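About this split. The held-out portion is used to measure sequence recovery: a designer receives only the structure tokens and must propose an amino acid at every position. Recovery is the fraction of positions where the proposal matches the reference. Here is one held-out target exactly as it appears in the evaluation file.
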């Protein structure tokens, strides 16, 4: 009987390429030349380190099904620890550190973990927030920590080097991944081994991941995926919880020194990189595949990369999905330019491609804010009609942990099948392409007319002075468009704003003649989500606009 444990993926890599590099980290820069001095773990070394940690975990009482909070920075240790937890069948809990203490503690409380594995600072944080951590009995620190009851994982050692992955079934719980909390409190998504295994297979196949590639992942969990797929991964020199604040020069140095050919990051990160590359006439010559994920990508970013920054033949992939179902569809940058850009720029929304697998069932249902108890074909909409995107298939998660209310609102039962409601609006076109139109709870309804954020903002974003824009309701009869300008002068001068507003009106009238919006506001630094720094927090902007007007 085969073993569905994800740690088996690492064991397979050891069989195939034991002495090849698996995880690479910048150790320091040479003082004279500035060249990077790197350290790494081979697949075998990573396997041995995770075996050591697994044995320590098992001996301390962490066992199959134990939920374990991980509070460790991205890097080789995070990979080794996660594989170690998989080996003993424990359930690692991943929470975005960037969400701030209040939201983080809310997630910790929901997860009801039995153990923590973290940096010493995590245990100091725990001391001041005991209640949320109730139930945590086993504490492992990555380094010495003077707090009573916290053991040092770095000081353990065992004779036996190999700790085998325990037997897991496809239906066993593999991990708990919290959403980014962009639309309310973050929810703990239950991942089974089956979902992880399917994701790995489909990403490897569709993005043609090869052992000869070199990955650089701006989203830490993807580094783990890379290793599982046999692709070495280099850790970027940045705070991965703030992708939009990365220093492009440091990133480029690593990409060049390590010949990065594959990279996964948020559109906000790739925008910062594009600005720098264009200003300095820099090309990403080693890259063959850029993956941008987390929010819609405007056609212009594809244009910039494909025309000015990437080498001939390199490709951009934009997967669409959510923590609860990922990756659902995928769109190539070259396809955006040849097929959908013009339509996006005319107000049709953002094309996110076709379902990535024939095993997925993706449909559009009537918009509703209520729970849908049971599936019925009556709620399914026709091509061209905008509704909520739902899916059912091997990547569809079935529940949120410890959150039956959230589960009820997001899932629809259909015999043996479970549908996940994405909370996103979209439609299928006649050719079977899915078009994303914005998030359901950010939709604007004015006098029974549905206004979709992504459709309208895509048009306004074409204006030369608009960095991004957000459509928000002001009251039942009026909406406003808030603009984050790309030049500060616009924020300071009322006269300039008047001229710009007239241009916005003209642009919208030309592309969307039926749209009746005449309120425009300007605001610097839009609030964005904590994970990708890319999703606009329109709820906060709505509150701001309502006060402002
Ligand atoms: N390619 C894409 N194009 C447009 N939007 C995307 C794309 N990929 C992801 N998204 C957006 O990201 C959402 C998923 O985000 P994620 O799973 O990080 O958590 P979240 O839904 O933001 O968190 P929460 O549910 O806590 O608010 C999708 O529902 C969609 O709105």
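Reference sequence for scoring:
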């Amino acid at each position: 009987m085969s073993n569905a444990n994800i740690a088996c993926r690492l064991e397979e890599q050891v069989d195939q390429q034991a002495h090849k590099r698996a995880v690479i980290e910048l150790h320091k820069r040479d003082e004279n030349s500035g060249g990077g001095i790197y350290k790494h773990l081979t697949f075998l070394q990573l396997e041995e380190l995770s075996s050591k940690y697994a044995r320590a975990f098992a001996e301390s009482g962490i066992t199959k099904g134990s939920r374990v909070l991980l509070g460790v920075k991205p890097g080789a240790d995070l990979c080794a620890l996660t594989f170690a937890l998989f080996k003993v069948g424990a359930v690692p809990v991943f929470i975005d550190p960037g969400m701030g203490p209040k939201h983080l503690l809310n997630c910790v409380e929901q997860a009801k973990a039995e153990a923590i594995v973290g940096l010493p600072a995590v245990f100091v944080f725990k001391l001041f927030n005991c209640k949320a951590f109730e139930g945590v009995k086993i504490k492992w620190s990555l380094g010495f920590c003077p707090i009573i009851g916290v053991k040092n994982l770095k000081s353990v050692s065992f004779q036996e080097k190999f700790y085998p992955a325990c037997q897991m079934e496809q239906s066993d719980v593999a991990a708990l991944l919290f959403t980014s909390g962009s639309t309310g409190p973050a929810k703990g998504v239950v991942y089974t081994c089956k979902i992880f295994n399917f994701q790995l297979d489909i990403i490897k196949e569709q993005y043609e991941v090869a052992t000869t590639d070199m990955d650089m992942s701006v989203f830490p969990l993807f580094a783990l995926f890379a290793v599982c797929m046999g692709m070495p991964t280099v850790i970027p020199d940045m705070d991965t919880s703030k992708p939009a604040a990365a220093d492009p020069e440091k990133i480029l140095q690593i990409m060049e020194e390590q010949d990065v050919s594959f990279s996964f990051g948020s559109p906000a990160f790739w925008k910062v990189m594009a600005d720098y590359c264009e200003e300095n006439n820099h090309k990403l010559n080693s890259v063959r595949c850029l993956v941008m994920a987390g929010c819609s990508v405007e056609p212009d970013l594809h244009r910039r990369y494909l025309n000015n920054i990437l080498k001939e033949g390199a490709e951009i992939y934009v997967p669409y999905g959510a923590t609860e179902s990922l990756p659902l569809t995928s769109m190539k940058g070259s396809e955006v330019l040849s097929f959908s850009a013009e339509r996006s720029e005319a107000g049709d929304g953002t094309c996110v491609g076709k379902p990535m697998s024939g095993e997925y069932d993706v449909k559009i249902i009537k918009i509703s804010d209520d729970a849908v108890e049971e599936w019925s074909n009556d709620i399914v909409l026709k091509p061209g009609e905008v509704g909520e995107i739902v899916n059912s298939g091997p990547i569809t998660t079935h529940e949120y942990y410890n959150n039956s209310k959230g589960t009820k609102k997001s899932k629809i039962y259909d015999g043996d099948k479970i549908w996940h409601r994405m909370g996103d609006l979209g439609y299928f076109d006649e050719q079977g392409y899915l078009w994303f139109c914005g998030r359901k709870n950010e939709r604007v309804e004015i006098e029974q007319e549905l206004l979709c954020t992504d459709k309208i903002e895509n048009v306004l974003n074409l204006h030369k002075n608009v960095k991004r824009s957000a459509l928000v309701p002001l009251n039942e009869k009026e909406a406003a468009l808030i603009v984050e300008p790309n030049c500060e002068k616009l924020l300071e001068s009322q006269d300039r704003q008047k001229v710009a507003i007239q241009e916005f009106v003209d642009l919208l009238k030309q592309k969307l003649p039926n749209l009746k919006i005449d309120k425009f506001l300007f605001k610097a630094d839009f609030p964005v989500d904590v994970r990708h720094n890319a999703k606009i927090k329109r709820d906060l902007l709505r509150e701001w606009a309502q006060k402002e007007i």
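Annotator remark: The mean pLDDT is 96.
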